[in-house]
């Protein structure tokens, strides 16, 4: 049985049309004609549900948003031009000058740079923590803490957060929890674990074929009675709650991020992303199984492998308890030195050397000389970047072929 059987029917049935073109229609138009002045007025006030302008929403993109929202049990979703814009949308649609973020886990480079450099220029401060520093995290929360941000799997340090525990802390103090679930779609459902917002780079495993850059942010409904978004801390969202009720977070994100920042998804990218989504269940299922096999065999062959499924990993008990459907496509190997890492990469015939992850093909990259080359020693230490570290994203190839190739490359 496929690990993700519950989604197999939903994806193909909702992405395909039952009448007319079976494949989703690409509405390739930036603007939309309203027909008459009354309809135009209605569209702008929200009483007429028709497209306004593609920066604010597009029918092809709306279809992708609906599938993504359903996948995560959210009330709605907003697709964006990239994964980084999904992170920016989720955070900047809520933050004001003087606010603070608590960021948990080994962070994606772009997100780390957004929090540690760009947002500080706007008076927004971020405190960074390892996944297990729960007490320190709790002690750092103050009246300015507006967002707790966490990645579902540390990339590339492979450390695993207990999202339920983190969500309990966020809820106890009335702080919003955003989870970047890029690496573990289907495997992990952050909204069910208590998160409020989920962000994705759909560029990765959701597309799988590296044909389109994209992102998506999934939101939960606002509760009718008690809701932390109704507290004074999130007062900028209140006017959307008054007007849109449970859909308020979608309206807030669209106004603040799509209308004002313009990070909207293109219809063509949304279409390509849906082609990937149709087969996500099958690819995820195969890859999370392959990753475990490859990790085990490379480790047996004496290569220093980091993957939570290995008994040697200090994350192994968390993996078994919290990640029963795998933790995505990544593993890392440490070749000790930069020279040995380069030799491995240049010898491998299977690995495609690229900064991407979650592809149909197996990908690999030396971390210190590429993505993290402009990070200082202290930052690299925090993020777990050693001199010989290679990040590998396992693809759809026969796992035995990957193992044979890597063992030869490492020799
Ligand atoms: C790739 C990635 C992003 C950024 O996505 P882009 O589509 O490249 O902008 C954000 N978070 C994680 C975990 C990623 O892997």
TrEMBL record:
Does Transferase show up as a keyword for this record? yes
N6-(pyridoxal phosphate)lysine occurs at 204
* Keywords for this protein: Pyridoxal phosphate, Transferase
Q: What's the cofactor?
A: pyridoxal 5'-phosphate
Q: Name one Pfam family in it.
A: Cys_Met_Meta_PP
Q: Name one GO biological process term.
A: transsulfuration
Which SUPFAM superfamilies does UniProt cross-reference here?
PLP-dependent transferases
The terms describing its cellular component in GO are:
cytoplasm
State any single GO MF term.
Answer: cysteine synthase activity
Claim: Transferase is one of the keywords in the record: yes
Family membership: Belongs to the trans-sulfuration enzymes family.
Which PANTHER family does the entry link to? HOMOCYSTEINE/CYSTEINE SYNTHASE (PTHR43797), HOMOCYSTEINE_CYSTEINE SYNTHASE (PTHR43797:SF2)
Q: What is this protein called?
A: O-acetylhomoserine aminocarboxypropyltransferase/cysteine synthase
